[in-house]
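Mods, move this if it's the wrong board.
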Amino acid sequence: MIRIVTDSTCEAPPELMAHPRVAVVPLSVVFGQTSLRDGVEISREEFWRRLPSSDPLPTTSQAVPSDFLTPFEQFCAAGDEVVAITISSKLSGTYAAALAAQQTYPYWPISVVDSLSTSIGLGMLLDEAVRLAEAGKTRAEIVERLTAMREKLQVVFVLETLEYLQKGGRIGKAQAFVGTLLKFKPLLQIADGEIGPVARARSRAKALETAQEYLLNQVPARGPQVRLALTQALAADEARALGDKLAAAFGASGFYVADLGPVLGVHVGPGAIGVGVYGGD
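Not the wrong board. Structure tokens:
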């Protein structure tokens, strides 16, 4: 059997995250001197409850090699093969930690894939990996497919503010927007594994509209083969409304809305909405 290992920045439906083939390695969120493992020692609900009163803002810490060794050893000892898919190597050292764990047992059947994404982008890759494993594809075939698919994923985020990204040190190329956004809402993308600017809008409604226009331009495909996913931080109704509009415009057969978790929440803050689109082959 092929098992899929991912990390807790992955956002996907609960039933996919709990799939028998899937194991999730937690990153950590740090409130003061207390480090809490994402999804293990702190839930999404608890994180968003605590964030507004947290001063200073919480920080995050990556997974370490021993975090990956646990599922790697468990699965390989049972005779299984492993495909690990992690948050972009340009956003976290978690990919390097997974590689280090894999290299501890270089002859074990383990492949590590850099998603060059995170959040719903990583979730869409996880969904594809599980689907391929269930269809009986080999580990090499799954890796090849994920590597090709990640190049075609479009992932954008509408934020209420850049404050959290800036303070968390993950602002990347979106630094170009700093100082110009007192009256604007930023639209950012994940491109080539990094966070970058797309546009800025004078209102949240206009930012969401711009996100839709941008994705429709970037992904020419239309029809039921288009895959669509969203994530949200205390903005569920807006996310579902945007999902409805995008599904209709793309002709997609449906979409899911995930709840944005603690590790990413530290960096994007409340009100964030993310959208991932894959147009198919």
